[in-house]
Design a protein that fits this description.
This protein has about 190 residues and is mainly alpha-helical. The protein has one domain: Hypothetical protein, domain 2 (Endonuclease III, domain 1), CATH 1.10.340. Strands 1-2 form a two-stranded parallel ribbon. Helix 2 packs antiparallel against helix 7. It starts with 11 loop residues before the first helix and ends with a helix.
C-alpha cells in the first residue's frame, strides 16, 4: 500500500483530490479563480465540506467563468442565497462577485492572474520537507504578503490562512509529507 498524507482520512473524494490535484502547480486562470472561490467558501469550514459541494459551486458560479461571475447582480445573489447545494453565506457570495472583478483587474494589468500570483513565490514552487502533518503551518511569510496585496486590490476573505490553503492547492507550496508518494511526483513539475 502506498504511503500518503494523512489529511484525506478515509474519504474517497478527498483521496482523489489529494492524489490528482493538491499541490500540482496551476498556471490556468480558470483554475485559479475556481480555487479562490472554493477557498473563500472554505473560510471557517472544512475542505471536505467544500469538496463535496464542488460541482454545485461549479453550476452556481457559471462553471467558474470569471467574466460571468463579475456581472452577477442582486437577482443572481438572491438566487444563490436560496441554493441549498452551496454554502449560503451572503458575505461569501458577495465577496465572490467582488473578487471576480478584482481578479479581472489583475488580468488586465498583468496579462494573466497567473503572472501576478506566482510572484509571491518567485515563480516556482516552494518544496517543504514535513514528515508529520502537525508540522505543516497554516500561514507563511509568502501567504502574509499575498493576503495583504490581495486585500489592497479589493479582494475579500483572503486572510493569510486562506491564502496559504490556496497556495497549497495551486501548487505554489508542496506540502505533501516527504513520505507521501505524491511528494516526489509533485516535485518534478
Amino acid at each position: 500500500m502506498k504511503k500518503t498524507c494523512t489529511w484525506p482520512g478515509n474519504d474517497l473524494l478527498m483521496h482523489q483530490y489529494h492524489d490528482d490535484e493538491w499541490g500540482v502547480p496551476v498556471h490556468d486562470d480558470k483554475k485559479h479563480i475556481e480555487f479562490i472561490i472554493l477557498d473563500t467558501f472554505q473560510a471557517g469550514l472544512s475542505w471536505k465540506t467544500i469538496l463535496h459541494k464542488r460541482e454545485n459551486f461549479r453550476k452556481a458560479f457559471a462553471d467558474f467563468d470569471v467574466k460571468k461571475i463579475s456581472t452577477f447582480d442582486e437577482e443572481n445573489i438572491q438566487h444563490l442565497l436560496q441554493d441549498a447545494g452551496i454554502i449560503r453565506n451572503q458575505l461569501k457570495i458577495r465577496a465572490t462577485v467582488s473578487n471576480a472583478i478584482a481578479f479581472m483587474a489583475i488580468q488586465k494589468e498583468y496579462g494573466t492572474f497567473d503572472d501576478y500570483i506566482w510572484q509571491f513565490v518567485n515563480g516556482k514552487t516552494i518544496h517543504t520537507m514535513h514528515a508529520d502533518q502537525i508540522n505543516i503551518p497554516a500561514t507563511s511569510n509568502e501567504s502574509d504578503a499575498m493576503s495583504k496585496a490581495l486585500y489592497k486590490r479589493g479582494f475579500k476573505f483572503v486572510g493569510s490562512t486562506i491564502c496559504y490553503a490556496y497556495m497549497q492547492a495551486a501548487g505554489m507550496v508542496n506540502d505533501h509529507l516527504v513520505t507521501c508518494f505524491r511528494y516526489q511526483q509533485v516535485k518534478k513539475w
